[in-house]
Amino acid sequence: MTFEWIQVPYALATLFIILNYGLLMTAVVRKLAARVGGRPGIPVWQNYIDLVKNFALRSKINHGVMYYLGPVFRLSGGIGLILFVPTIYGSSWAQNFSFAGDLVLALYFIFFGTLGMALGAGESGHPHSAIGVSRGLAQVTTAELPMALAVYSLAIQYQTLSITEIVAAQQGGLFNWTLFTNPLAVVAAMFAFVGTMMRSPFDVVLAPQEIPIGPPTEYHSAYLALMQTNRAIFPIAKTIIYMNLFFGGAANWAEFAIKVFLLYMIPAVIGVVHPRFRVEQSIRFFLKWGLPVGILAILTV
Amino acid sequence: MVSPVLIIAIGLGTAFALGLLGSSRKTLQFGATLTALAAMSAISVIWLVALVTGAAQTAEIHTAGAVPPFAINLRVGIAEAALLATVTLTGLFAALSLRAQLLKLGRGGMAVLLVLIMAISGLVMTRDLFNVFVFIELIAIATAGLVLLSEDPRAVCAGFKFLVVGQIIAILLLVGIIFTYHANGSLNIDDIAATPVGVQGAALAMFLLLIALVIELKTFPANGWALDIYTSAHPGFSAVFSAATGSAALFIVDKVVAPAGAEWLPLLTGIGVLSFVASNVVALRQDNDRRLLGYSSVGQLGLVLAVIGQRDVLGEAYLYVAGGLILSHAVAKAGLFWMSAMVRGRNLDDWAAIRARAPMVLAFATFIAMLVGLPPFPGFYAKWDLAQALVAAGRLPVLALILLGVLIEAAYLFRWFGFAIKREAPEKGLSANMVDCGITFAAVIAGWALGWIWGAIPGQHNVLATLPMLAVLAFFALEPLPAKIKNVAAIGALLGWFTLVFGDYDPMRLIFAVVMIPGGAVILLASFTETGRRIGFYPSAMAMYAGLALLLEATTFFEFFAAWEIMTIGSYFLILRGKMSEPHALSYMLFSLGGAFALLAGFALASGGIQPFALNQLGTVGAELAPWVFVLLSIGFMTKTAAMGLHIWLPGAHAEAETDVSPMVSGILLKAGLFGLFLMLMELGRQSLWGVDLTVVLAWIGAISAFLGAVLSIFQEDAKRLLAYSSISQMGYALFGIALMNHLGWLLAMMFVINHYVYKSMLFLAVGGVYKRTHTKLMYQMGGLITLMPFTFVSVLVGIIAMSGVPPLSGFGGRWIFYNAIMDAGLRLPLILIFMAGPVGFLYLFRLIHTIFLGQLKDPHRQLKEAPVWLLVPQMIFVAFLIGFAVLPGMALQKVDGYIGSIFGDQPLVWSGRAIASEFGYWNPVAIMVVIAVIFVSVFLILIAKNHDAQKVKQFNIVFSAERPYRPETTHFAWNFFAPYRKALGFLEAPVVTSFWGGVTDGLNGTAEFTRRFYNGNGQSYAAHVLLFVVAVYLIAMGGVA
Amino acid sequence: MRDIHALLKQRHRLGPLEPRKGGLAFVTVPRENLRGLLLELRDTHGFTHLVLLTAVDWMEDGLFQLTYMLNNRGRDLTLGIRVMIDREEAQGDTIHDMWPTAATYQRELKEMFGIDFPGSPRLDEEFILEGWTDLPPYRRDFDSLAYSQQTYAERPGRVTHDPREYMKSKLYPDGV
Amino acid sequence: MKDVDDKFLKNLDRTVPLREELRPRKVTTPDGQEIEIEPLKDYFCEAAPKVHAKSYFPIVEDFYNWARANSLWILGFGTGCGAIEMRPLMTPRFDAYRYGIQWRPTPRQSNLLMISGYLSVKTLKRAIRAYEQMQGPKYVVGLGSCTINGGMYWDSYNTIKRLDQYLPVDLYIAGCMPRPEALLAGFMELKKLIKAGKCEGANKYAENFATYKANQKSVIKDWDMPDYNW
């Protein structure tokens, strides 16, 4: 697959859809959580308002170059992740720029935003930012491990690293999904999924109680707006990857919307009913439960 | 041509003539002595030259006009001549070194010295047993005389002990001679062979002869009597005692045993090896320099004795090996004793005094290298041939013991050298004067000359004659120049060499060559920051680079091994230059030597004694040997790549080295090990031992190193240690890649060779620059340096992005190849560790950049300047390269890919334009770079549009729960950065390996401590030792013979 | 309680015991006896708990009264020990080595009454009054109202009434 | 009912010295030369607050104000008894979230400061710092009579009586204490003001910065912070 200029507007369109979907869906999820608690909850368009409000802030401060670039890295990471992954299977225009690289690219590009964010937060000079980063990085080392193993077992199963081909291999019926052809890998991957969605019980990174929300402590105004945008996009992007790898991808936007929503609900539900882990607890958790499943996955495939 | 008898004649004559001179005219007497000695030396040297050049034949001199056995006859062959030269010259120099003493003592002393030298020469030449006895008596008496003549009370009692034991020896010898005469009516050595030794009496006779001569060698444990002499006598004399007497005694043993027949050899071997290992172990605990030298002499003599014991397998190489060892021992020991005459203090660390004089250090280094048997000295060649012969004859245990002994010897000698370089020098610790320096340097020159000669002997590869080594010698000559000029020269030399050679390398060698030679030049740019003359840096550095260059040039085992050793020595001296690096340099040296010996054994095993053996014939090794060769070689190479278990030398060595040395030893030196592994696997391929596939073992080791290296690295507070541990991890990746034994795995390893060189050198230089400014390596003491050191920050940033494998920089290429490589590899379990090592690596990298450059700036650092420009230049070059390499990986990899394809016969990667496709996935670096750049810029523009007017605030303008920060120190979160990680996985940093190696060394020292008790300084017990020794040996030996 | 008082009387110069309702009683000791008394109470009579340490300002007699309230949990007795100290160079003896909590009380007394307790840890660190420049506010010669009027801006229109007069005027507007 | 005694005069001539960590100090750099550190200059930004103009197009400004009104992020800074009254707002019974109100743990991200009760001088200092660290436009709501006229602390030696002397208050909610219903009503009121563009507290503070500072410093004797806490 090669590049034509027409792909640029296509990609932008995809991006636009996903952004709005992300903003609405996160709001809906929060509303659901509120209803569970017997509250009316926020209006579904609240995210848009907050976004506008933050863009409209009048006075801003700046802690230095990396601080300034941090959110840029963050959002670029999210957008890039979307653009490097084909969104809709078989759609002529939602393939984005997936010709640039395969699954490996997607997996490692996830770290792009994290790194930039960490550096930006670091330069703000706030100890809480550094603490949050240290916690987050420490947790991700083991949280991503089952995912890596699952991906490996998947790649061996399908003998390819190209996402498109993996999705293609899952077409033609529910039971061609990896979920059924390679359940162990999916379970392992789900550990990583829940662990990296920044929701309880694994959200000690931005623990609003002990450390006022960690890395973004010093961020505000447009910086914060960019990060909010990313927080709308990035989970969707990750969910898309999981959907493509394990749940047969999506052949049209409706299927996309449903699958992503359901997948997104998994960590949400778990988060609503679980208290928070300390970092070393979650590390042990992943080593004790996630890792063995992952090992089984790569041994049995 | 003058008759060699004159040597004896002159000696005796002058000795008597001295008596005629009035006792008052000391100077005249001294002059006479010197002249006599000079004459003797002259004669022997003339003979040596004549014999070597073939101008003369081996001469038989019959005294009293009758033929043996009715008269004593002397012989002068090459060996004799060489020894004579050594002896007489030693005597001459000894006389010079002893001048003060001699002038004080007067003619008595001089006469005794003359007689001693004369006797030793006679011992060398004579072919008659009784004559041997006479000369030995003379030697004993003369020695005792010389020792007793000095008024040091300890010397007196030492001399007395010596006499006592000397008499025991004499008696044994005499009895032996009588028996021999009884057994075969002749005292002529050559006749002994004529009669069968099977006769009980003759066997006993021979035993007594040998044991007497062996004890004369002061073999362990029957040597307490002699050691006191080393300690107490004047070093000038000890030199004679160690060099001349010892060599002569060895020679006589050889003379006697030659006719006696092969069944005596095992006895000698046993005694020799025991003596060698044991006295080296004891020497470990000595703190008096002369006593240490004494033990070392005993050890060396033991070694040669063992070699004599191997004469049956050595064949015609026998003279070469034994001679090499004896001569290097004689020269080095004499030299060291003469140096110790100049050092005032008697403790090992008093030798720090010599640091003031660079030539002295050179001399010291030369002698130690000669003793340990490092190139380019004769001992090295001898060791190599010895190993070949031993393995060929299947005498591996002997080889193992000898190598062990050498390792221990290296341990205390290099520890001593470390003291000399690193400990603080005592006031006026050095009493240097023209004469002593003169004779010392005569020894140095003799050493190098011998090195040349031993190399030049046909059938050998002369290490010194190679261009790189000549360059090194040239840099010795350049030392007086200022550092900057030498730096230009060094860079020129490296680039010049590269232009000479790169034409005829295959792509893989070429990559290594580029990393090692021009790569070294780039790092040398950083050395322009150094001012002054920087004595000692350039020879060492160039020695290392010469080793690397020769390593790539090597075609035979020997060349490879020599290059390896040279590289090791050079890097050792480099590392030793660091401020706190004394212990680390030592452990580096020991591990390297251990690895080198593993290589030596492996090569010998592979070649089976055939010399020279080409590297590319490694594949032809027999199937039953191949696995063992594999094991030995990979141990050797993995010591260099610091694989887990053999890694403990690395962190200290790399962290404590100088700013511009760390990148050399980390970025470049480690690659030598990888190069070796490549060669080995290319030739040997997969091997399995007891059904275990050894490459799988390698893969596991690689994975474990990759993981544990990373984990250990995140717990470091010292920036350079952090980087050092990360090197272990990175080399682990490379090792894993190689061990995958498939095309992409090797490509991955090559990628790591390039990437690791670039970003590790870059990071070490950056951290070094920070260290230059902040004077600390502890990260938590820094912070907020980003605005003060922007360039350094940029290079660290690029470095860690590349290293962590995040797109778009070149590290990602490595990861991509890695995934494709593991797809068709059978290994799965080790992957778990590798997968985990990735994110863990991310941890320590972030810590590195955060705690140094981000966070809170500290009071004392507020006005720091950016790192020196010459440190930045190479960094910026690296940054540019990393980005270029990220966009166009093909420029370096495509050729290598093709080459590896020619090895494995497959071609998994398709290079179409800028895009790369494998059978599993695809990778388009340009597209990635462009997409990311476009997104990044557009988002950045949005932010600028909104926040261009943001108010720039200072470091304490942070929300602090409505309080304000107290001090930057209390606000910077840096120390123990990953505390939760330590809570969860801290158990992984338990120092298991370190404690293991610590246990080994403690064990050795314990043994030494125990053994030295045995030397209680009491003459009677020493005599008892001797007798017990004789009896014990008798029981063992005759049990074997009869 | 009385038995303890009787016992203590033999060794310490105690004033008379003034019982109150329940297990509460007060006794006055001279300053030099305080320490020994407290020690004995704590170690032998089980008054292990320092309930509070506070002061009363007897401005007219030029005295400060320190009250150490001790409690015996086992027997549910509370003994208040009064020490009168001079108001001019107001100085007490620190007991933070017996009850670490005392250090905090003494810090507060130092801040609020200006009573010094040499040797008490962190005594001079301000407790709640950061940068206080005036008299210690709990001394009776410090007028809180005047101070606040001279310091903190009033909002105009605030009136205060004497409750009695005010209610009268409300209930009996015609003043009957 | 004690009346003021006119003999008492507060002590005016004593001043509080600067805190130790804020005094200029000498440190030696790694290369050994002495340098002078002035913490207040070197570690804190000295710039004064700026007056930020409204958006050029009124319609845009109205749109922005609407957004601001519907996304009030409260700084979780509870003083006095009112802190207790604010908690119920998060519970199902009142649920302030439905009005776009939520609590943020850091001043940088919040734009509404609730002074929920009496302010002792010590707390006032923190409140000012927190307020100045918020990014404009930002709003202050005073809760209860203590913030209005001192309330029951009318004669306290350590409690301020008028919040608007020290911070630009946009809205007072009367009561002692006002119940959550009153708070909600107050929020609605505030929203109206914001939408009407009447809440320019931040700019007012910047304009009359000198007066505010003077008032604050007249109360807070140990002003151990920069004049404006960015």
Automatic annotation (TrEMBL), chain A:
In the bilayer, the protein is annotated as: Multi-pass membrane protein
Kindly state which keywords UniProt assigns to this record, in alphabetical order: Membrane, Transmembrane, Transmembrane helix
Where in or outside the cell it occurs: the entry states: Membrane
The record's annotation in InterPro entries points to: ComplexI_Subunit1, NADH_UbQ_OxRdtase_su1/FPO
Where are the membrane-spanning stretches?
6-29, 65-85, 97-121, 174-194, 256-273
Primary residence: membrane
GO cellular component: a single term: plasma membrane
Quote the PANTHER family the UniProt record gives: FORMATE HYDROGENLYASE SUBUNIT 4, FORMATE HYDROGENLYASE SUBUNIT 4-RELATED
Q: What is this protein called?
A: Membrane bound protein complex subunit mbxM
Q: Which organism is it from?
A: Tropicimonas sediminicola
TrEMBL record, chain B:
Q: What is its main location?
A: membrane
Topology of the protein relative to the lipid bilayer = Multi-pass membrane protein
In the record, biological process GO terms are: ATP synthesis coupled electron transport
Compartments it resides in: Cell membrane; Membrane
- Pfam families linked: Proton_antipo_M
Instruction: Say which domain of life the source belongs to.
Output: Bacteria
Q: Name one GO cellular component term.
A: plasma membrane
The protein's UniProt keywords, in alphabetical order, are: Cell membrane, Lyase, Membrane, Transmembrane, Transmembrane helix
List the Gene Ontology MF annotations in alphabetical order.
lyase activity; NADH dehydrogenase (ubiquinone) activity
Q: Which residues form a coiled coil?
A: none
User: The NADH:quinone oxidoreductase/Mrp antiporter transmembrane domain covers which part of the protein?
Assistant: 127-405, 556-833
Where does the chain cross the membrane? 6-22, 34-56, 76-96, 108-126, 132-150, 162-181, 193-215, 227-252, 264-285, 292-311, 317-339, 360-378, 398-418, 430-454, 460-478, 485-503, 509-528, 535-552, 558-576, 588-608, 628-649, 661-682, 694-715, 722-740, 746-771, 783-805, 825-846, 867-888, 922-945, 1022-1041
Describe the function of this protein: NDH-1 shuttles electrons from NADH, via FMN and iron-sulfur (Fe-S) centers, to quinones in the respiratory chain. The immediate electron acceptor for the enzyme in this species is believed to be ubiquinone. Couples the redox reaction to proton translocation (for every two electrons transferred, four hydrogen ions are translocated across the cytoplasmic membrane), and thus conserves the redox energy in a proton gradient.
Q: Hey, which family's this protein in?
A: Belongs to the CPA3 antiporters (TC 2.A.63) subunit D family.
Q: Which PANTHER family match?
A: NA(+)_H(+) ANTIPORTER SUBUNIT D1, NADH DEHYDROGENASE
Protein name in UniProt: Formate hydrogenlyase subunit 3/Multisubunit Na+/H+ antiporter, MnhD subunit
Q: Which organism is it from?
A: Tropicimonas sediminicola
UniProtKB/TrEMBL annotation, chain C:
**Gene3D superfamilies attached to this UniProt entry:** NADH:ubiquinone oxidoreductase, 30kDa subunit (3.30.460.80)
SUPFAM superfamilies, per the entry: Nqo5-like
State the Gene Ontology terms under molecular function.
Answer: NADH dehydrogenase (ubiquinone) activity
- Identify its protein family: Belongs to the complex I 30 kDa subunit family.
One family name in Pfam for this protein: Complex1_30kDa
Protein name per the record = NADH-quinone oxidoreductase subunit C
> Where along the sequence do coiled-coil regions lie?
none
Task: Identify the residues that the record assigns to the NADH:ubiquinone oxidoreductase 30kDa subunit domain, covering every copy.
Answer: 27-144
Write down the InterPro entries for this protein, in alphabetical order.
Answer: NADH_quin_OxRdtase_su_C/D-like (IPR037232), NADH_UbQ_OxRdtase_30kDa_su (IPR001268)
TrEMBL record, chain D:
User: Which Gene Ontology cellular-component terms appear in the entry?
Assistant: respiratory chain complex I
Pfam families named in the record: Oxidored_q6
Give the GO biological process terms: aerobic respiration; electron transport coupled proton transport
Q: Name one GO molecular function term.
A: quinone binding
The record's listing under Gene3D superfamilies reads: 3.40.50.12280
Q: Which SUPFAM superfamilies match?
A: HydA/Nqo6-like (SSF56770)
> InterPro entries from the xrefs?
NADH_UbQ_OxRdtase-like_20kDa (IPR006137), NADH_UQ_OxRdtase_20Kd_su (IPR006138)
Alphabetically list the UniProt keywords.
4Fe-4S, Cell membrane, Iron, Iron-sulfur, Membrane, Metal-binding, NAD, Quinone, Ubiquinone
Family named by the database record: Belongs to the complex I 20 kDa subunit family.
According to UniProt, the name of this protein is: NADH-quinone oxidoreductase subunit B
